[in-house]
Amino acid sequence: MTESRFVARPDWYTATNPETRAATGAPLRWGVVATGGIARTVTADLALLEDAALHAVSSRRQSTAAAFAADFGFATHYYDGGPDGSGAEGYRQLVNDPDVDVVYVATPHAQHHAVAKAALEAGKHVLCEKSLTINAAEAAELIALARASGLFLMEAVWSRFVPGFQRALQIVDSGEIGDVEWVRADLGFPAPVDETARIWAPAAGGGALLDLTVYPLLWPWATLGKPATVSATGALTAFGVDRQNALTLGYDSGAQAQLMSYLGSFGPRQAVVCGTKGMIETVGSVNNPLELRITIGWDAPRTEVFEVPGRGYTYELREVTRCIQAGLTESPTMPLDDSLAVMELFDDVRRQLGVTYPNDPR
Ligand SMILES: NC(=O)c1ccc[n+]([C@@H]2O[C@H](COP(=O)([O-])OP(=O)(O)OC[C@H]3O[C@@H](n4cnc5c(N)ncnc54)[C@H](OP(=O)(O)O)[C@@H]3O)[C@@H](O)[C@H]2O)c1
Known about the structure:
Blueprint: H1 19-22, E1 28-33, H2 37-46, E2 52-59, H3 62-72, E3 76-79, H4 88-95, E4 102-105, H5 109-121, E5 125-128, H6 136-149, E6 153-155, H7 163-174, E7 180-188, H8 208-223, E8 229-236, E9 242-250, E10 256-262, E11 271-275, E12 278-283, E13 291-296, E14 302-305, H9 314-325, H10 336-353
Parallel strand pairs: 1-2, 1-4, 2-3, 4-5, 5-6, 7-10
Antiparallel strand pairs: 7-11, 8-9, 9-10, 11-12, 12-13, 13-14
Helix pairs in contact: 4-5, 5-6, 6-10
The protein binds NADP nicotinamide-adenine-dinucleotide phosphate.
Residues 34-39, 59-61, 64, 87, 106-109, 111, 129-130, 156, 158, 198, 211 line the site of NADP nicotinamide-adenine-dinucleotide phosphate.
């Protein structure tokens, strides 16, 4: 029988579970670095947690820092008064604020390493957006620093914690669909090509791989484990990042997975896990499935429906809170070795595709 990995305990994420608050009895004080799209979405969900204090936000500009702080009720805000406009001065002040316990890094991928490193060096716990970094060398450095400092570090792969995904893993573990033989998963959307936009720019770690592939990859990674082989093909833009990529994963058991990530088209945005007795299909979303369709044998499918508070990020935020309050330095559901292994796999895929970034090791 196939056993899935990183199954969370559902009661970890309930607001009433005393275990999640017992360790400190105090709310965690959050500092948020950046005021872009995901910073805004995740902060709105953070505000739903009763034991989160929105302490500080930093931005490259005073106006955006102040507006974000006012919108969400942050106690203070920082910004970059320096000449280069990199945001470094703002986030340095934030990570050195003694009233910040945990830093949420919501900058583009290429800035994750510098911001997370500064936060860890300042003694702060870190939740860092995906992809953790732009290459495995950067990821390994951050992980070593967090471990040496005894600080919590987690890549913000929120989909590992959402109820639809966790329920799919429970079904696989129960043996209901038998042994998993193959998985197919995809994610993407049409994004206007713009060499300067963070989703495309080589200097920002642009392309479908670092932005999207972590989500389809979750499904085989959770149900079959780390693959033995990865074969990648892709279509690159004129400026050298992947507009789309197709990965075939192979396993020693003979199981296979096919993953598609794309920035040029619409698509089903779906995961299908196929076993010897039946299959599970996500309906509506691959990264936060609110519906699962389960078909056993030749029976009619049954549907399971899930509700999530906010936009679905409270589950990962509660995990960060639970771990830090319990004195854990990494999440058992999103371990750092997994983040590193995924970055190594992405390095390998980029070698196969011919995609390089300016801050890759020479
Ligand atoms: N978990 C999810 O569901 C999810 C969804 C989307 C994105 N993400 C991840 O979150 C990260 C940010 O994505 P996003 O969509 O929020 O991007 P975005 O809307 O472009 O926002 C990024 C923000 O980072 C700050 N920043 C700092 N240095 C920057 C630089 N050199 N260039 C551009 N911006 C810089 C800016 O905020 P200031 O102007 O305030 O400094 C900017 O608004 C990415 O790593 C992405 O993979 C995760």
